[in-house]
Amino acid sequence: MEVGQKFPLTIKRLGINGEGVGFYKRNVVFVKGAIPGEEVTVKLTKVSPKFAEAEILAIRKASEFRQEAPCPVYSECGGCQLQHMTYEAQLMNKRDIVIQAFEKYAKEIGQTAEIRPTIGMDNPWHYRNKSQFQVRKEGKRVYAGLFTEGTNQLLNINDCLVQHPVTSKITVATRKILQKLNIPIYDGKTLNGLVRTIVVRTGMRSGETQVCLVTTRRELPHKEELIERIKKIDPSIVSITQNVNREKTSLIFGPDTFILDGKEAIHEKLGEFAFDLSTRAFFQLNPEQTVHLYNEIKKAAALTGKENVVDAYCGVGTIGMWLAEGAREVRGMDNVDEAIADAKYNARTNDNLQHVRFFPGSADKWLFRWSKEDYRPDVICVDPPRTGLEPGFIRTVLKIKPKRFVYTSCNPSTLARDLKELSKSYNVEYIQPVDMFPQTAQVECVVKLTLKK
Question: How large is the C-alpha radius of gyration of the chain?
Fold first, then answer.
Protein backbone atom coordinates (compact mmCIF):
# COMPACT_ATOMS: atom_id res chain seq x y z
CA MET A 1 0.00 0.00 0.00
CA GLU A 2 1.11 3.57 -0.67
CA VAL A 3 -0.20 7.07 0.02
CA GLY A 4 -2.62 8.20 -2.69
CA GLN A 5 -3.73 4.66 -3.57
CA LYS A 6 -7.49 4.31 -4.19
CA PHE A 7 -9.62 1.21 -3.73
CA PRO A 8 -13.07 -0.01 -2.59
CA LEU A 9 -13.44 -0.99 1.04
CA THR A 10 -16.12 -2.60 3.20
CA ILE A 11 -16.30 -1.17 6.73
CA LYS A 12 -16.48 -3.95 9.32
CA ARG A 13 -16.36 -2.20 12.70
CA LEU A 14 -15.97 1.10 14.51
CA GLY A 15 -12.53 1.95 15.88
CA ILE A 16 -11.84 3.22 19.39
CA ASN A 17 -11.53 6.80 18.06
CA GLY A 18 -14.80 6.62 16.13
CA GLU A 19 -13.34 5.85 12.72
CA GLY A 20 -14.56 3.08 10.43
CA VAL A 21 -12.33 -0.01 10.22
CA GLY A 22 -11.88 -2.08 7.07
CA PHE A 23 -9.34 -4.60 5.76
CA TYR A 24 -7.46 -4.39 2.46
CA LYS A 25 -5.19 -7.34 1.62
CA ARG A 26 -5.14 -8.22 5.35
CA ASN A 27 -4.07 -4.69 6.28
CA VAL A 28 -6.12 -2.64 8.74
CA VAL A 29 -7.44 0.59 7.25
CA PHE A 30 -9.00 3.37 9.40
CA VAL A 31 -11.47 5.63 7.63
CA LYS A 32 -12.74 8.75 9.38
CA GLY A 33 -16.48 9.26 8.92
CA ALA A 34 -17.24 5.71 7.72
CA ILE A 35 -19.88 3.54 9.41
CA PRO A 36 -19.84 -0.26 9.88
CA GLY A 37 -21.68 -2.00 7.04
CA GLU A 38 -20.88 0.66 4.46
CA GLU A 39 -19.13 0.08 1.16
CA VAL A 40 -16.88 3.02 0.30
CA THR A 41 -14.17 4.07 -2.12
CA VAL A 42 -11.18 5.42 -0.22
CA LYS A 43 -7.84 7.14 -0.79
CA LEU A 44 -4.89 6.34 1.46
CA THR A 45 -3.57 9.37 3.38
CA LYS A 46 -1.09 7.60 5.69
CA VAL A 47 0.62 4.21 5.58
CA SER A 48 2.32 2.63 8.61
CA PRO A 49 3.74 -0.87 9.11
CA LYS A 50 0.73 -1.98 11.18
CA PHE A 51 -2.13 0.08 9.74
CA ALA A 52 -3.17 2.68 7.19
CA GLU A 53 -5.47 5.72 7.25
CA ALA A 54 -7.74 6.77 4.42
CA GLU A 55 -10.35 9.35 3.46
CA ILE A 56 -13.69 8.67 1.82
CA LEU A 57 -13.89 9.49 -1.88
CA ALA A 58 -17.38 8.05 -2.40
CA ILE A 59 -19.99 6.11 -0.45
CA ARG A 60 -21.09 3.25 -2.71
CA LYS A 61 -23.50 1.75 -0.18
CA ALA A 62 -24.57 3.93 2.75
CA SER A 63 -25.52 2.58 6.17
CA GLU A 64 -29.15 2.82 7.23
CA PHE A 65 -27.78 4.54 10.34
CA ARG A 66 -26.05 7.39 8.46
CA GLN A 67 -27.44 10.87 9.03
CA GLU A 68 -26.47 14.46 8.30
CA ALA A 69 -24.46 15.81 11.24
CA PRO A 70 -26.50 18.68 12.75
CA CYS A 71 -23.41 20.69 13.81
CA PRO A 72 -22.26 23.10 11.05
CA VAL A 73 -18.56 22.73 12.01
CA TYR A 74 -18.64 18.99 12.78
CA SER A 75 -16.16 17.94 10.09
CA GLU A 76 -13.64 20.64 11.10
CA CYS A 77 -13.90 20.58 14.90
CA GLY A 78 -13.05 17.01 15.90
CA GLY A 79 -14.59 17.41 19.35
CA CYS A 80 -17.36 14.97 18.37
CA GLN A 81 -16.75 11.89 16.22
CA LEU A 82 -20.18 10.25 15.77
CA GLN A 83 -22.72 12.93 14.82
CA HIS A 84 -22.99 11.39 11.34
CA MET A 85 -24.49 8.28 12.98
CA THR A 86 -27.95 7.88 14.55
CA TYR A 87 -27.93 7.69 18.34
CA GLU A 88 -29.28 4.13 18.25
CA ALA A 89 -26.25 3.12 16.18
CA GLN A 90 -23.86 5.01 18.46
CA LEU A 91 -25.02 2.96 21.45
CA MET A 92 -24.71 -0.34 19.55
CA ASN A 93 -21.23 0.51 18.29
CA LYS A 94 -19.99 1.65 21.70
CA ARG A 95 -20.87 -1.80 23.02
CA ASP A 96 -18.94 -3.27 20.10
CA ILE A 97 -15.89 -1.11 20.98
CA VAL A 98 -15.95 -2.78 24.41
CA ILE A 99 -16.28 -6.23 22.81
CA GLN A 100 -13.30 -5.50 20.53
CA ALA A 101 -11.13 -4.50 23.50
CA PHE A 102 -11.81 -7.83 25.21
CA GLU A 103 -11.22 -9.77 21.98
CA LYS A 104 -7.79 -8.15 21.82
CA TYR A 105 -6.67 -8.06 25.46
CA ALA A 106 -8.77 -10.61 27.41
CA LYS A 107 -10.40 -13.00 24.97
CA GLU A 108 -11.63 -15.53 27.54
CA ILE A 109 -13.45 -12.86 29.57
CA GLY A 110 -15.02 -11.47 26.40
CA GLN A 111 -16.35 -14.93 25.59
CA THR A 112 -17.78 -15.70 29.03
CA ALA A 113 -18.83 -12.38 30.62
CA GLU A 114 -22.16 -10.74 29.85
CA ILE A 115 -21.57 -7.47 27.97
CA ARG A 116 -24.85 -5.61 28.31
CA PRO A 117 -26.45 -3.06 25.93
CA THR A 118 -25.17 0.49 26.39
CA ILE A 119 -27.23 2.76 28.67
CA GLY A 120 -27.91 5.94 26.71
CA MET A 121 -29.57 9.33 27.26
CA ASP A 122 -33.14 10.35 26.46
CA ASN A 123 -31.78 13.59 24.95
CA PRO A 124 -28.14 13.15 23.87
CA TRP A 125 -27.53 16.89 23.26
CA HIS A 126 -26.61 19.94 25.39
CA TYR A 127 -25.43 17.72 28.26
CA ARG A 128 -22.02 19.22 29.13
CA ASN A 129 -22.09 21.55 32.14
CA LYS A 130 -18.64 23.05 31.51
CA SER A 131 -16.89 24.63 28.52
CA GLN A 132 -13.22 25.56 28.15
CA PHE A 133 -12.81 27.58 24.96
CA GLN A 134 -9.43 28.96 23.88
CA VAL A 135 -9.26 32.64 22.92
CA ARG A 136 -7.25 34.05 20.03
CA LYS A 137 -7.31 37.16 17.83
CA GLU A 138 -7.12 37.60 14.06
CA GLY A 139 -6.92 41.19 12.98
CA LYS A 140 -9.38 43.04 15.21
CA ARG A 141 -11.67 40.06 15.76
CA VAL A 142 -11.54 37.92 18.91
CA TYR A 143 -12.33 34.21 18.51
CA ALA A 144 -13.27 31.63 21.13
CA GLY A 145 -13.48 27.93 20.42
CA LEU A 146 -11.48 24.75 19.89
CA PHE A 147 -8.47 23.99 17.74
CA THR A 148 -9.26 22.28 14.46
CA GLU A 149 -8.32 18.62 14.78
CA GLY A 150 -4.57 18.09 14.32
CA THR A 151 -3.77 21.81 13.86
CA ASN A 152 -3.02 25.02 15.76
CA GLN A 153 -5.85 26.79 13.91
CA LEU A 154 -8.59 27.97 16.26
CA LEU A 155 -12.14 27.27 15.12
CA ASN A 156 -14.59 29.94 16.31
CA ILE A 157 -17.64 28.24 17.85
CA ASN A 158 -20.84 30.16 18.52
CA ASP A 159 -23.10 27.27 19.51
CA CYS A 160 -21.78 23.87 20.55
CA LEU A 161 -24.57 21.28 20.42
CA VAL A 162 -23.18 19.14 23.25
CA GLN A 163 -22.70 22.10 25.61
CA HIS A 164 -25.43 23.44 27.91
CA PRO A 165 -26.86 26.47 25.99
CA VAL A 166 -26.00 28.97 28.76
CA THR A 167 -22.28 28.11 28.52
CA SER A 168 -22.30 28.89 24.78
CA LYS A 169 -24.26 32.12 25.28
CA ILE A 170 -21.89 33.39 27.97
CA THR A 171 -18.72 32.41 26.08
CA VAL A 172 -19.80 34.24 22.91
CA ALA A 173 -20.86 37.34 24.85
CA THR A 174 -17.62 37.38 26.87
CA ARG A 175 -15.39 37.22 23.79
CA LYS A 176 -17.36 40.13 22.29
CA ILE A 177 -16.76 42.13 25.48
CA LEU A 178 -13.03 41.35 25.32
CA GLN A 179 -13.01 42.59 21.72
CA LYS A 180 -15.02 45.73 22.55
CA LEU A 181 -12.72 46.70 25.44
CA ASN A 182 -9.64 45.85 23.35
CA ILE A 183 -8.21 43.63 26.10
CA PRO A 184 -4.96 41.91 24.96
CA ILE A 185 -5.51 38.34 23.75
CA TYR A 186 -2.96 35.55 24.14
CA ASP A 187 -0.88 34.63 21.10
CA GLY A 188 0.02 30.95 21.13
CA LYS A 189 3.06 31.54 18.89
CA THR A 190 4.71 34.59 20.46
CA LEU A 191 3.27 33.84 23.95
CA ASN A 192 2.39 37.54 24.24
CA GLY A 193 -1.03 38.81 25.26
CA LEU A 194 -3.23 38.27 28.27
CA VAL A 195 -6.50 36.30 28.02
CA ARG A 196 -5.99 32.72 26.87
CA THR A 197 -9.16 30.77 27.87
CA ILE A 198 -12.80 31.40 28.80
CA VAL A 199 -14.11 28.73 31.19
CA VAL A 200 -17.84 28.58 31.97
CA ARG A 201 -19.47 26.06 34.32
CA THR A 202 -23.17 25.97 35.14
CA GLY A 203 -25.09 24.06 37.79
CA MET A 204 -27.67 21.97 35.92
CA ARG A 205 -29.93 21.79 38.99
CA SER A 206 -28.95 24.93 40.90
CA GLY A 207 -29.02 27.27 37.90
CA GLU A 208 -25.85 29.00 39.15
CA THR A 209 -23.04 29.78 36.70
CA GLN A 210 -19.36 30.63 37.13
CA VAL A 211 -17.21 32.44 34.55
CA CYS A 212 -13.42 32.20 34.74
CA LEU A 213 -10.91 34.09 32.60
CA VAL A 214 -7.58 32.28 32.36
CA THR A 215 -4.83 34.87 31.86
CA THR A 216 -1.04 35.03 31.59
CA ARG A 217 -0.71 37.56 34.43
CA ARG A 218 -2.69 39.08 37.28
CA GLU A 219 -3.07 42.62 35.88
CA LEU A 220 -6.38 43.04 34.05
CA PRO A 221 -7.04 46.26 32.09
CA HIS A 222 -10.55 47.78 32.24
CA LYS A 223 -11.16 45.39 35.11
CA GLU A 224 -14.23 47.02 36.66
CA GLU A 225 -15.99 47.61 33.35
CA LEU A 226 -15.16 44.05 32.21
CA ILE A 227 -16.68 42.58 35.37
CA GLU A 228 -19.84 44.71 35.14
CA ARG A 229 -20.40 43.77 31.49
CA ILE A 230 -19.92 40.04 32.17
CA LYS A 231 -22.39 40.19 35.08
CA LYS A 232 -25.05 41.55 32.73
CA ILE A 233 -24.73 38.68 30.21
CA ASP A 234 -27.00 36.29 32.11
CA PRO A 235 -28.76 36.38 35.50
CA SER A 236 -27.38 32.90 36.36
CA ILE A 237 -23.84 34.30 36.75
CA VAL A 238 -23.05 34.36 40.49
CA SER A 239 -19.26 33.95 40.36
CA ILE A 240 -16.54 35.56 38.21
CA THR A 241 -12.96 34.44 38.77
CA GLN A 242 -9.52 34.85 37.22
CA ASN A 243 -6.94 32.08 37.00
CA VAL A 244 -3.32 32.89 36.16
CA ASN A 245 -1.41 30.43 33.97
CA ARG A 246 1.97 31.78 32.91
CA GLU A 247 3.32 28.53 31.43
CA LYS A 248 3.55 27.42 27.82
CA THR A 249 1.39 24.34 28.32
CA SER A 250 -1.71 22.56 27.07
CA LEU A 251 -3.05 22.55 30.64
CA ILE A 252 -5.90 25.01 31.08
CA PHE A 253 -5.35 26.19 34.64
CA GLY A 254 -2.40 27.62 36.51
CA PRO A 255 -1.91 27.42 40.28
CA ASP A 256 -3.46 30.77 41.32
CA THR A 257 -7.15 31.69 41.23
CA PHE A 258 -8.68 35.02 42.31
CA ILE A 259 -12.31 36.01 42.86
CA LEU A 260 -13.27 39.02 40.73
CA ASP A 261 -16.93 39.17 41.74
CA GLY A 262 -19.54 37.17 43.61
CA LYS A 263 -19.01 33.79 45.25
CA GLU A 264 -15.91 31.62 45.29
CA ALA A 265 -17.92 28.58 44.19
CA ILE A 266 -21.23 27.67 42.60
CA HIS A 267 -23.67 25.26 44.19
CA GLU A 268 -24.77 22.02 42.53
CA LYS A 269 -26.60 18.81 43.44
CA LEU A 270 -26.07 15.26 42.28
CA GLY A 271 -28.89 13.02 43.43
CA GLU A 272 -29.50 13.96 47.07
CA PHE A 273 -25.98 15.30 47.61
CA ALA A 274 -24.91 18.96 47.47
CA PHE A 275 -21.53 20.21 46.23
CA ASP A 276 -19.75 23.57 46.16
CA LEU A 277 -17.70 23.79 42.97
CA SER A 278 -14.76 26.18 42.95
CA THR A 279 -13.03 27.09 39.70
CA ARG A 280 -10.60 24.15 39.61
CA ALA A 281 -12.74 21.57 41.44
CA PHE A 282 -13.38 18.36 39.49
CA PHE A 283 -17.00 17.48 38.81
CA GLN A 284 -18.62 15.17 36.28
CA LEU A 285 -19.29 16.92 32.95
CA ASN A 286 -22.60 15.12 32.37
CA PRO A 287 -24.48 15.19 35.70
CA GLU A 288 -27.69 13.62 34.32
CA GLN A 289 -25.88 10.53 33.05
CA THR A 290 -23.62 10.44 36.12
CA VAL A 291 -26.67 9.54 38.21
CA HIS A 292 -27.24 6.49 35.98
CA LEU A 293 -23.54 5.57 36.17
CA TYR A 294 -23.45 5.81 39.97
CA ASN A 295 -26.67 3.84 40.32
CA GLU A 296 -25.06 1.07 38.26
CA ILE A 297 -22.06 1.14 40.63
CA LYS A 298 -24.46 0.88 43.58
CA LYS A 299 -26.23 -2.11 41.98
CA ALA A 300 -22.92 -3.89 41.38
CA ALA A 301 -21.74 -3.19 44.95
CA ALA A 302 -24.91 -4.92 46.25
CA LEU A 303 -24.61 -3.40 49.73
CA THR A 304 -26.72 -4.60 52.66
CA GLY A 305 -25.63 -2.11 55.35
CA LYS A 306 -23.02 -4.48 56.81
CA GLU A 307 -20.12 -3.95 54.40
CA ASN A 308 -16.91 -1.98 54.76
CA VAL A 309 -16.39 -0.20 51.44
CA VAL A 310 -13.21 1.29 49.96
CA ASP A 311 -13.55 3.96 47.25
CA ALA A 312 -10.08 3.86 45.67
CA TYR A 313 -9.07 6.64 43.26
CA CYS A 314 -11.89 8.52 45.00
CA GLY A 315 -11.35 12.00 43.57
CA VAL A 316 -13.73 14.41 45.33
CA GLY A 317 -15.55 11.49 46.96
CA THR A 318 -18.74 11.35 44.91
CA ILE A 319 -18.84 7.54 44.48
CA GLY A 320 -18.08 6.87 48.14
CA MET A 321 -20.82 9.29 49.17
CA TRP A 322 -23.23 7.64 46.74
CA LEU A 323 -22.60 4.25 48.37
CA ALA A 324 -22.64 5.51 51.97
CA GLU A 325 -26.31 4.80 52.67
CA GLY A 326 -25.83 1.05 52.18
CA ALA A 327 -22.43 0.71 53.86
CA ARG A 328 -21.26 0.21 57.43
CA GLU A 329 -18.20 2.36 56.68
CA VAL A 330 -16.69 4.01 53.60
CA ARG A 331 -13.01 4.87 53.24
CA GLY A 332 -11.72 6.72 50.19
CA MET A 333 -8.21 7.61 49.08
CA ASP A 334 -6.55 9.58 46.28
CA ASN A 335 -3.05 10.79 45.41
CA VAL A 336 -4.31 14.33 44.69
CA ASP A 337 -4.33 16.29 47.95
CA GLU A 338 -6.72 18.95 46.58
CA ALA A 339 -9.25 16.25 45.68
CA ILE A 340 -9.10 14.79 49.19
CA ALA A 341 -9.62 18.26 50.69
CA ASP A 342 -12.72 18.66 48.48
CA ALA A 343 -13.92 15.16 49.41
CA LYS A 344 -13.64 15.89 53.13
CA TYR A 345 -15.50 19.18 52.68
CA ASN A 346 -18.24 17.48 50.64
CA ALA A 347 -18.70 14.81 53.31
CA ARG A 348 -18.88 17.42 56.09
CA THR A 349 -21.52 19.49 54.33
CA ASN A 350 -23.90 16.60 53.65
CA ASP A 351 -25.99 14.89 56.32
CA ASN A 352 -25.62 11.25 57.40
CA LEU A 353 -22.03 10.87 56.17
CA GLN A 354 -20.26 10.59 59.52
CA HIS A 355 -19.15 7.07 58.57
CA VAL A 356 -17.39 8.29 55.39
CA ARG A 357 -13.69 9.17 55.65
CA PHE A 358 -11.06 10.20 53.11
CA PHE A 359 -7.26 9.79 53.15
CA PRO A 360 -4.49 11.34 51.01
CA GLY A 361 -2.14 8.83 49.40
CA SER A 362 -2.09 5.80 47.12
CA ALA A 363 -4.72 3.08 47.33
CA ASP A 364 -2.25 0.19 47.57
CA LYS A 365 -0.36 1.92 50.41
CA TRP A 366 -3.51 2.38 52.49
CA LEU A 367 -4.89 -1.09 51.76
CA PHE A 368 -1.60 -2.68 52.81
CA ARG A 369 -1.46 -0.58 55.98
CA TRP A 370 -5.07 -1.34 56.90
CA SER A 371 -4.58 -5.06 56.31
CA LYS A 372 -1.77 -4.97 58.93
CA GLU A 373 -4.32 -3.36 61.28
CA ASP A 374 -6.74 -6.22 60.54
CA TYR A 375 -9.10 -4.03 58.49
CA ARG A 376 -10.20 -5.67 55.25
CA PRO A 377 -12.88 -4.19 53.01
CA ASP A 378 -15.82 -6.29 51.85
CA VAL A 379 -16.23 -4.22 48.67
CA ILE A 380 -13.70 -2.15 46.71
CA CYS A 381 -14.83 0.33 44.05
CA VAL A 382 -12.40 1.92 41.61
CA ASP A 383 -12.70 4.61 38.95
CA PRO A 384 -9.09 5.11 37.78
CA PRO A 385 -7.73 7.41 35.03
CA ARG A 386 -7.51 6.17 31.43
CA THR A 387 -4.20 4.47 32.17
CA GLY A 388 -6.04 2.00 34.41
CA LEU A 389 -5.03 0.43 37.71
CA GLU A 390 -1.48 0.48 39.02
CA PRO A 391 0.10 -3.03 39.09
CA GLY A 392 0.88 -2.66 42.81
CA PHE A 393 -2.78 -1.97 43.55
CA ILE A 394 -3.90 -5.07 41.65
CA ARG A 395 -1.37 -7.20 43.56
CA THR A 396 -2.68 -5.82 46.87
CA VAL A 397 -6.30 -6.54 45.91
CA LEU A 398 -5.41 -10.11 44.97
CA LYS A 399 -3.81 -10.53 48.41
CA ILE A 400 -6.59 -9.09 50.59
CA LYS A 401 -9.40 -10.52 48.42
CA PRO A 402 -12.53 -8.39 49.06
CA LYS A 403 -15.80 -10.25 48.35
CA ARG A 404 -16.80 -7.88 45.56
CA PHE A 405 -14.86 -5.55 43.30
CA VAL A 406 -16.59 -2.87 41.20
CA TYR A 407 -14.48 -1.45 38.36
CA THR A 408 -15.62 1.74 36.59
CA SER A 409 -13.54 2.54 33.52
CA CYS A 410 -13.39 5.17 30.77
CA ASN A 411 -10.96 3.10 28.66
CA PRO A 412 -12.07 -0.37 27.45
CA SER A 413 -8.49 -1.36 26.52
CA THR A 414 -6.93 -0.83 29.95
CA LEU A 415 -10.09 -2.25 31.54
CA ALA A 416 -9.68 -5.51 29.62
CA ARG A 417 -5.98 -5.67 30.51
CA ASP A 418 -6.67 -5.17 34.23
CA LEU A 419 -9.60 -7.60 34.35
CA LYS A 420 -7.37 -10.29 32.87
CA GLU A 421 -5.14 -9.95 35.96
CA LEU A 422 -8.03 -9.68 38.43
CA SER A 423 -9.71 -12.75 36.93
CA LYS A 424 -7.05 -14.89 38.60
CA SER A 425 -9.16 -14.55 41.77
CA TYR A 426 -12.42 -13.05 40.52
CA ASN A 427 -15.34 -13.95 38.29
CA VAL A 428 -16.39 -11.17 35.91
CA GLU A 429 -20.16 -11.24 36.39
CA TYR A 430 -21.07 -8.60 33.78
CA ILE A 431 -19.87 -5.48 31.97
CA GLN A 432 -22.32 -2.57 31.70
CA PRO A 433 -21.41 0.13 29.14
CA VAL A 434 -22.75 3.62 29.90
CA ASP A 435 -22.77 6.50 27.40
CA MET A 436 -21.41 9.48 29.33
CA PHE A 437 -20.48 11.49 26.22
CA PRO A 438 -22.99 11.13 23.37
CA GLN A 439 -21.78 12.06 19.87
CA THR A 440 -18.21 11.07 20.83
CA ALA A 441 -16.44 7.70 20.63
CA GLN A 442 -15.89 7.54 24.41
CA VAL A 443 -17.63 4.85 26.44
CA GLU A 444 -17.67 4.19 30.19
CA CYS A 445 -18.13 0.74 31.74
CA VAL A 446 -19.18 -0.56 35.15
CA VAL A 447 -17.98 -4.11 35.87
CA LYS A 448 -19.08 -6.38 38.72
CA LEU A 449 -16.50 -8.91 39.94
CA THR A 450 -17.09 -11.50 42.65
CA LEU A 451 -14.48 -13.53 44.52
CA LYS A 452 -14.06 -17.09 43.26
CA LYS A 453 -15.01 -19.78 45.77
Answer: 24
